[in-house]
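Researcher: Sequence of Lipase follows. Predict its structure.
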Amino acid sequence: MQKQELAYQDTKFNLDTYWVDPIADFGTPNKRPLAIICPGGAFKFLTDREAQPIAFNFNSLGMHAVVLDYQLVDDDHSVYPLALQELATTLNWLKSQEEIQHIDLSKVVLVGFSAGSHVVADFNSIVLDPDQKDKVFPDELTVTPAANVLCYPVIDMTIGWPKDEDWAMKIAPDIYYWQAQEHLTKHGKPTFIWQTVTDATVPVMNSILYAQKMDMLGIPYEMHLFGSGAHGLALGNYVTQNPGNEANLNAYDTKWWELCVNWLKLQEIIPNR
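Model: Prediction complete. Tokens:
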């Protein structure tokens, strides 16, 4: 893992980069897909459970991975719109790394967990729409994601999370950013969604609303709603278990990763062989 510092205007932020080294035996290195991962943490912190272990899983598919340390709520900043600007800056930075790291820029996937999914969903809805983009990111977007993966996502901040409206205002003083599904257009990218119907933190209706809007717009999607399991499962196995926390384990829900891999093959992000 290597740290990379970037900046949007006068605000600096960090990436953790997980590059897949070229195979030395090959005369010409393979260009590899890449996942940009936005961990959750209620916009208060970024959980490591949804960072390096997820990056390693993507590496195992032959994909590069980058974990974005996006803007959280602090004394000086709200999350929005800065988190979206940081994600756009990260995408543009990939252009400079295309030849150095052998990246297939046509196969970049945005991956969000919980609060991090709200960043990804808002980006898919707002920044990818030419009529809305300049409100957030007036510069040219030189790299466009091909697909999204949303894991137990926050989509609409008015239907159960956060429970405190004051916290929602700290996340985004402009309520324009609160409801990702409301701004989704035909420019949104194919999306994989999974959640549990027993999620007691983020209501499952978040996933349903976003899928419903994609369905109305004809955007390809795949959604899996599991019948049991707590919020914040990550991989749902011992790799991402906080020691002693049985709620981090669910043998049924670990299937989400296999289903996601199948979907990435369907989207031709990774080869179907």
